[in-house]
Design a protein that fits this description.
Number of helices of chain A: 7
Structural class of chain B: alpha/beta
Order of helices and strands of chain A: EEEHEHEHEHEEEEHEHEEH
Strand order of the largest sheet of chain A: 9-8-7-10-6-1-4-5-11
Oligomer: heterodimer
Strand content of chain B: 25-35%
Number of strands of chain A: 13
Distance between the termini of chain A: 59 Å
Largest sheet of chain B: 5 strands, parallel
Distance between the termini of chain B: 50 Å
Strand content of chain A: 25-35%
Radius of gyration of chain B: 21 Å
Largest interface: A-B, 85 and 93 residues
Number of strands of chain B: 17
Chain lengths: ~250, ~325
């Protein structure tokens, strides 16, 4: 089974986000492999361990996104593809999906695994676009994946439980963070990752014309901010104050 | 307007969006799967001029692709300027495929949309809702996904013309097959509709302490939510997640317990009327947006508060 996992380097969710003067999110801070993608890689590795095959990581990003791929390789993935091109800075969801699709098509995988959404953008728009461009069905929000021959069966998280959804390969699966606890890279894994291939490609190699962006940012404004309120230390009387506030709001 | 149905039930955010859509022009809604015809009457009452319906069962049983076919086919017959979706888990899967198929892209996570200079501009909150970007759609049709709870639903008392949408869902689109639906937990008070929401984060210490929040919610007649961090950690189910991709809530009172206030979370609750935060860290971002911030041990304060609420109600 050939498995492609899409990975993204994101600002470290555990450090505070900073805005630049031009209202873009600062790119200077610490960046890490998206924690959701770690779960995707883990699921990919487990599928490979159970059914054989290969796990290929594909990422679009600047040169330093190689570190995110390297981390996945040290967990045990076999090789990586980094799509890097100055024309891709600020790429929107559709362009991102188009370049990922071009790189992934060349691999003809049985299964493509994506996180349901990234930690930074959190819009989850790339996976369904990618599935469409690859011409494959999407098995989404999976918290469990089972394979029976060429049929993939998942448990799809819903508001009140889950759905059992199945499709024949090739498929695109989006996974929840709860699907698998990502393994730590062993020292051996880290050493082995150094000699694994990370192929770098640009738009020309993929034959993708970036075209015009689907949307243009016309301006940025401050949202109506909530006024900072009262802050109290709990000295045993805090509950009384909370009750007063609840009473003013007419809920007690 | 994509009128999302889930097992025959019209999703509430669709009616919120109708309030906005009818201000902008004539609204055609598209309702697919079982319950589509019944939904058409409701959509008419909320201002839809025309509702295109098709009750083929494949819309219920297969993920995204049949609905994408139907929207693409309607787009071919009567090209709209704008296709609106709710920014929900199911709708975004259809919108993403459609945007890729039509090659037009989309704007997601919008809080508002206006017609401006012959085009469409959406307001998209980011940076935890502290900033709002105005984004112009460069393609036609514009595909825009709007966050739930952005508008209030209201009836106009109209009647929609119901048209049967001619679309045959090909075998090629019947691929991701929903073979079984399993209900694990029925919600008591619906999170989105609750007047009081009590949400817990990592500061709750572990899943074993969530019953403390349930008890407080019980006393206040509210519902319990959670931050993404604890949902990801598997403490509580995804259905409880409040935030950008979880649920958006706008209750009278929101009590954030042991939640630091990551943007992923705050964008889903910042429109609450009153926000109370209980956190051991006075510097947590949630404290800067709370009407009342209490610095202390949540595991002590919450049970005491529950007892005080009960005493107040009984006294």
């Amino acid at each position: 089974m050939k498995i492609v996992v899409t990975v993204k380097q994101v600002p470290d969710p555990n450090s505070a986000t900073v805005l630049e003067a031009d209202n873009t999110v600062s790119r200077e801070k610490e960046v890490v492999l998206d924690p959701g993608d770690e779960c995707g890689i883990e699921e990919g590795l487990q599928l490979k361990e159970a059914h054989g095959g290969e796990v290929v990581l594909v990422s679009m990003g600047p040169e330093r996104a190689r570190d995110a791929i390297r981390k996945g390789l040290s967990m045990g993935a076999d090789r990586g593809i980094l799509i890097s091109d100055s024309q891709l800075a600020g790429a929107d969801a559709l362009l991102t999906a188009r370049v990922l699709a071009a790189a992934i098509k060349a691999e003809s995988p049985d299964v493509v695994i994506c996180a349901t959404e990234s930690y930074d953008g959190s819009t989850g728009m790339v996976p369904p676009m990618l599935a469409e461009l690859l011409g494959v069905p999407q098995l989404t929000v999976a918290k469990k994946v089972d394979v029976a021959g060429s049929t993939i069966k998942i448990h799809r998280q819903t508001a009140d439980g889950y759905e059992v959804v199945e499709a024949a390969t090739p498929v695109l699966i989006t996974v929840t963070a709860g699907i698998a606890e990502p393994r730590y890279a062993s020292l051996k894994g880290i050493m082995a990752a150094r000699s694994k291939e990370v192929k770098q490609v640009g738009l020309g190699d993929l034959g993708v014309d970036p075209g015009q962006p689907a949307e243009t940012i016309e301006g940025v404004a401050d949202a109506e901010a909530r006024k900072a309120g009262e802050i109290i230390e709990d000295d045993g009387k805090a509950v009384d104050r909370i009750i007063q506030v609840l009473a003013e709001a007419k809920v007690v | 307007m994509f009128a999302e149905l889930n097992q025959g039930k019209l999703q509430t955010t669709v009616l919120e969006l109708m309030s906005k859509a009818r201000e902008m022009g004539d609204v055609d809604a598209i309702a697919l799967g079982s319950g589509a015809k019944a939904a058409a009457a409701t959509l008419g009452k909320h201002g839809a001029k025309v509702v295109h319906v098709n009750e083929d069962k494949s819309f219920d049983d297969y993920i995204a692709e049949p609905a994408t076919d139907a929207l693409a086919s309607l787009h071919k017959q009567e090209p709209p300027d704008l296709i609106l979706f709710g920014f929900t888990s199911d709708s975004r899967e259809v919108a993403g495929r459609l945007a890729a198929r039509l090659g037009v892209g989309l704007i997601s996570n919008a809080a508002d949309i206006t017609a401006k200079d012959g085009g469409l501009v959406a307001k998209v909150p980011y940076f935890g809702g502290a900033k709002v970007a105005s984004m112009r759609a460069n393609n036609k049709p514009a595909i825009v996904l709007i966050r739930p709870k952005s508008f209030e639903p209201s009836e106009t008392g109209g009647t929609a013309e119901v048209k049967e949408l001619a679309v045959s869902v090909g075998e090629g689109s019947k691929r991701a097959h929903i073979v079984e639906r399993v209900v694990e937990a029925s919600e008591k008070v619906k999170l989105e509709d609750a007047k009081v929401v009590i949400s817990g984060g990592r500061g709750m210490g572990g899943p074993d302490n969530f019953p403390l929040l349930e008890a407080l919610a019980g006393a206040l007649g509210g519902a319990v939510g959670a931050s993404r961090a604890v949902v990801d950690a598997g403490w509580v189910p995804y259905s409880m997640q409040v935030g950008q991709t979880g649920k958006s809530v706008r209750p009278g009172v929101y009590i954030a317990v042991g939640i630091s206030g990551a943007m992923q979370h705050t964008v889903g609750m910042k429109s609450s009327k009153v926000i109370i935060a209980i956190n051991k860290d006075a510097e947590a971002p949630i404290m800067k947006m709370a009407d009342l911030g209490v610095v202390g041990d949540a595991l002590k304060i919450v049970p005491a508060l529950t007892a005080a609420v009960k005493a107040k109600k009984n006294g």
